[in-house]
Amino acid sequence: MSSSMEEVFETLPQHTCSWLKGKMTMHKYQDFWASKESLDGGILAQQNFKAEPSDVFLCSAHKTGTTWLKSLAFAIATREKFDVSASPLLTKLVHECPRKFKLTICGYTPSLRFIVGYGPYWDHILGYWKASLERPERILVLKYDDLRKEPTSNVKRLAEFIGYPFSVNEEKAGVVDDIIKLCSFENLSNLEVNKTGKREGGG
Fold this sequence. Notes:
single chain, alpha+beta, Rossmann fold, 2 domains, three-stranded antiparallel beta sheet, two-stranded parallel ribbon, P-loop_NTPase
């Protein structure tokens, strides 16, 4: 970490909280709480990362269907290139699949404590919700329960949002249903690559 970054951290509010592996000192930067390591990378990314109009950011809390949503987005965007029966999702971990668009995962872990990694959980949810109301063409909020109860309508919403809407012919041909089945928990969890983490032809 550079001396200039050290000087930044000296001015930030601090809080020590219990974590999985003991105690951790968190720093507050622009209303977000995080460790030095996370903030150091985050600040550098903030200063240097240039988003493209076609970039898709998947922002979700740990254990809220992130892998499922990422798989759906990948299958939707690459359906013309990969038939369901030949999808890379069948043999590769989802984050290793070739990408037709940039998909960035922004994750944070909810906790019962008010101060947690990356800030209070409900502040994140409320922030995204308000932003989605102000800019519905840029931010889509999908609820896990809704996706489970009504996968077809929500997968169609997702496809429309990321710029890969289904045609009437695709819907009639069952493409939406095929993608839902491909990316279902039951299907993906039973694949060898997701059981062992080992890819086809290698470890």
